Amino acid sequence: MTLYVSVTLVFLLLFYFCSCSSLSAAATSFATDESFDVRQHLSTVSRYGAGKETTIGSYVPSTIPEGCNPIHLNLVARHGTRSPTKKRIKELDQLAIHLDELLNEAKRGEKSLPQKIPSWLSGWQSPWKGRLKGGELISKGEDELYQLALRIRKRFPELFNEEYHPDIFSIRATQVPRASASAVAFGIGLFQGNGTLGPGMHRAFSVTSESRASDVCLRFYDTCETYKEYRKSQEPAVDKLRGPILEEIAAELVKRYQINFTRQDVASLWFLCKQEASLLDITDQACNLFTASEVELLEWTDDLELFLLKGYGKSINYHMGLPLLQDVVQSMEQAILAKEENHKPGTFEKARLRFAHAETVVPFTCLLGIFLEGSEFERIQRDEPLSLPPKPPLPRSWRGSTVAPFGVNNMLVLYQCPGNASHSTSASKGYKSEYYVQVLHNEIPVPMPGCYNTDFCSFEVFKESIVNPHLKHNFESVCTAQAKEEFPSPKPSSIACKLLNFIRSFFQRDSYGNAKINQKNEL
C-alpha cells in the first residue's frame, strides 16, 4: 500500500471514530420526513433533474454585458440515466436469493415473519430478473438529453440558427452505446423542426467516435496506464474506508428488523435503493430500510470514492484529461480566428458537442477548478492533495448528485464583445474584439477560482490562470512516467486530436507516440 493510501486510510478512520454520531438516535425511516427526498442523495446514480435542482451555494451569476454575443459552445456531457450493467443485474439476482434465505432464518420455525420485517421483502425479485443485457440508455435518459438540447437551443438561438453541417455542429461520443445513444437523443432535440423527416421534421446528423484504444479526448482514463495502476492500488483502500460505515449501519438494521444483515448486504441494498429510486421512482422499499442519516452516510461513502478515484483526491485523476481541455481551448481559438478574419457564416464551427462518461466529465470539471475555494485551487495547481469531503452532518460542496449525476454537463460558451479597451489583452494581441468565456455546470453559471471567482472570464485570463498552469504536465509524462516500458502511449486518430497534437507542440516538449495499446472492455 502506498504512503498516500496509508495516510488517507488512517486519516479517514480517525475522522470516522472521532466524529461518529449515533445512528440509533435517528432510527425512524426517512419516509416520515417529507422534506427529505432520497432521490437527491444518490450520488452519481442521481437523475439529471435531481442533481440540477441542487444549487451551488448562493452564487449570483454574472450579467452578460450588452453587445456581447455567443459565437461558440463547447459541451462535455455524461450519458443519461441508464439501466444496471450485466454484472450488477446478476448481483441483484443473487440478492433476491440471499434475502429469501435471511427471511427463512428470521422466521425461526414460525409460520409468519416478525412484524418488524417490511412486507415487500417477502418474495422480492429483482425488477431486472431475466435480463441478459444491461447498461443501456433508458427512456428517462433519452428524455434528459433531448430536453437538454431543447433548452440549449432556446438559450443560445444565435448559435443554432444555421443549416446543419457536421463541420459546423460537431457531435462526438465514445463507442459505448449509452454514450452514442445520448448523443442521438440530444441531436434529435437540437435539430428538431429543421429537417424533412416525419411529422417532427427531423433530420439526419452525424455522430463520430474514436477507436476504443486511442480515444485520448473522451476515454483518457482507459488509455492512461499510470491512472489504471493508481486506481487498481486504491480500490481496496477505498473499500476499507467504507467498512466502518457499512458495519455500523448493518448493526442498526439487525436491531431494527431482526434480520442478520451483513455489511455486504447493506452495500447491495444501498445499490438496490439507488436503482429503484433513480430508474423506477420507487422510494418505499429498499430506500425505506434506511434512515435519512444512514442515507446521507452511504451517499458520503459514494462521494468519497468519486473524490479519490475520479476527482481532486489525486492529481493523476484530472491531469490525464489534458487532451480534452486542450481540444476545448483549440476549438475556441479557431472560433476567434474565424471571427477576426471575417469568415462567412456557415464556414466555421459553432458548437463542439461531446458525450461520454462520469470518468470523462469529472476530471474535466476538476481541471476547470469548479467546486473549489481559492486556496484549494492554488493547491491543485501545485499538485497538492486536498482534504477529504467532510462527513455528514457537516456541509460539503463535493456531492456526486451535483458533480456527476446522469446527464451531467459542462458548457463553455465563448462570447464576442465590442473591443473598446485599448489596454486590454485582446487588443494587445491585435484582436478587433474582446472575447470572454462563460462556464456553466448543469446549465448553471458557476464561479471559477482562477477567474476571480466569476463565471464570465476574459479568454486570455482563462488560458493564463486556468489552462496554462496545467500545461507543465502532458499526457505522456502523466501517463507513462511511472508506467513500465510495455505500456506504450496511445495514438490519436481523430482530426481534432491530430490538430491537438500539432497545437500542443507549442506548449509541450513531447508528442504522442505511435504505438497502439491493448483494447479494453467498455465501462
Automatic annotation (TrEMBL):
Organism: Dendrobium thyrsiflorum
Family assignment from sequence similarity: Belongs to the histidine acid phosphatase family. MINPP1 subfamily.
Subcellular location: Cell membrane
InterPro entries (UniProt xref): His_Pase_clade-2, His_PPase_superfam, Histidine_acid_Pase_euk
Pfam families, per database record: His_Phos_2 (PF00328)
Domain of life: Eukaryota
Entry protein name: Multiple inositol polyphosphate phosphatase 1
Keyword Membrane: yes
N-terminal signal peptide: 1-20
Disulphide connectivity of cysteines: C68-C417, C273-C287, C451-C457
CC annotations in GO: plasma membrane
